[in-house]
Write a structure and sequence with these properties.
There is one protein chain. This protein has 13 helices and 24 strands. It is an alpha+beta fold. The chain has three domains: 209 residues, 2-Layer Sandwich (BirA Bifunctional Protein, domain 2), CATH 3.30.930.10; 39 residues, no CATH class; 94 residues, Anticodon-binding domain (Rossmann fold), CATH 3.40.50.800. The strands form seven sheets. The chain has a seven-stranded mixed sheet, sandwiched between helices. Strands 21-20-22-23-24 form a five-stranded mixed sheet, sandwiched between helices. A hairpin with a 2-residue loop joins strand 13 and strand 14. Helix 2 packs across helix 9.
Length: 452
């Protein structure tokens, strides 16, 4: 079954070292989380899978890692300074503060009072001083999304890679939003990571490309292990579209707290490159330089046949890494009844996402021969570069199996006294609990099959 209990996931994450509350020893920092030893592996594996699908498996996308600090002019022209806000309401009875658009009954969710302030816009961007003097004029923002630095680097990448439209720029990185009401574990946080692609296309071909990327992104999440019955496509109503969007399809996932957005695929038209180009309203379909006191760059390309200049439209698939981690944990979580009426917890992650790919377990922790043999096997498997392999030298095979079921390790490999005699080991499968004996010479091939 798929867990619908957030408390179970939070407990697993804390108990097994996936995710911790940040600054916990000082009471915790709301809306901020730290990824522990297993969490960072799962998170990195998810990002690597996305990066491979976007960069390595395609010839029309390039990567970028841009700065987090973002100049105020960038976010002024992108519209963030004026529009990137939530409606904030205060309860006059209990002083609780909340977002008006999350509660439509005109009642305080804390105490039920209707004595509320009028909604007022609250800008979500974190501002920070730049330079040695904080006089209020020299400031920048922690980026609220990774997209804008892609747009401002459009010409740099175009010139340095000789790409032609259609092509994309992909980036994974931190973003920051001063959420009014963070919550639902890592679903809504103030510091998070995004996996974003900006795919540049010719005007008139944007709707076809938008449909293409909706299908691509849906299929990718299914390949990561998301059950299609838990993943829905939602066409965002015109009244709910962002200021830059012509059309947006949200991939909605059935999280433990309900159906919410996992990834959005937006048709941003030419809003972004146009906003950062010399005054778009003065743009001529020619090589003529446009006038703008804030920007001296023309983010336009030339049609190879007509030689006319145009500002590309942008299709943007944007996914939250943290939301992806939460969805994968929820999807993979199992509680299974065993024959002896005990229960085992299994995290049935896809092998390429599992934090630990294999655990090598010597039967006796204090037996030097067994431990050395296990250590050599670990070294051989680790050298294949498929992910983390660990030596589980706890001395208790049963507890070792249960622990690795719970953290999602696809296989456990037991080294026992028979190994010393005939160079064979026992491989135990996480999902079926079935065991088989194989020779060490065959082990690498057996291990590699897991990832096929």
């Amino acid at each position: 079954m798929v867990s619908k209990n957030m408390e179970e996931l939070v407990s697993l994450c804390k108990r097994r070292g996936f995710i911790f509350q940040s600054n916990e020893i000082y009471g915790g920092l709301q809306g901020i989380y730290d990824y522990g030893p297993l969490g960072v592996e799962l998170k990195n594996n998810l990002k690597l899978s996305w990066w491979k699908s976007m960069i390595y498996e395609r010839d029309d996308v390039e990567g970028l890692d841009a700065s987090i600090l973002t100049g105020k002019q960038v976010l002024k022209h992108s519209g963030h300074e004026d529009t990137f806000s939530d409606p904030l309401v205060d309860c006059k009875s209990c002083n609780h503060r909340f977002r008006a658009d999350h509660h439509n009954d005109n009642k305080c969710p804390q105490c039920g009072s209707i004595d509320l302030t009028d909604p007022r816009p609250f800008n979500l961007m974190f501002k920070t001083a730049v330079g040695p003097v904080d006089d209020g004029s020299n400031y920048a923002y922690l980026r609220p999304e990774t997209a804008q630095q892609i747009f401002t680097n459009f010409k740099n990448i175009l010139d340095s890679t000789n790409k032609v439209v259609p092509f994309g720029i992909a980036q994974i990185g931190k973003a920051f939003r001063n959420e009014v009401t963070p919550g639902k574990f890592i679903f809504r946080v103030r510091e998070f990571e995004q996996m974003e692609l900006e795919f540049f296309v010719e005007p008139g071909k944007d709707e076809t490309w938008h449909d293409y990327w909706v299908a691509q992104r849906y299929d990718w999440w299914v390949h990561q292990g998301i059950d299609p019955s838990n993943l829905k496509k939602l066409n965002v109503e015109n009244s709910d579209l962002s200021h830059y969007s012509k059309a947006t399809v949200d991939l909605m996932y059935e999280f433990p707290h309900g159906l919410e957005e996992l990834e959005g695929i937006a048709n941003r038209t030419d809003f972004d490159l146009g906003s950062h180009t010399k005054n778009q309203s003065d743009f001529k379909i020619s090589a003529e330089v446009m006038e703008n006191k804030d920007s001296t760059t023309k983010l336009a390309v030339q049609n190879s046949e007509s030689k006319d200049w145009f500002i590309p439209y942008v299709i943007e698939p944007s996914a939250g890494v943290d939301r992806g981690v939460l969805a994968l944990l929820n999807e993979a979580y199992r509680e299974e009844k065993l024959e002896n009426d005990n229960t085992r917890i299994v995290l049935a992650l896809k092998p390429h996402l599992s934090p630990v790919k294999a655990a090598i377990i010597p039967l006796k922790r204090n037996n030097e021969e067994l431990v050395n043999k296990a250590r050599n096997i670990k070294k051989d498997l680790q050298s294949l570069g498929l992910g983390r392999v660990i030596l589980e030298n706890s001395g208790n095979i049963g507890k070792g199996y249960r622990r690795h079921d719970e953290i999602g390790t696809p296989i456990c490999i037991t080294v026992d006294f028979e190994t010393l005699e005939d160079e064979t080991v026992t491989i135990r499968n996480r999902d079926t609990m079935q065991q088989k004996r194989v020779s060490i010479k065959e082990l690498i091939a057996e291990y590699q099959k897991i990832f096929e």
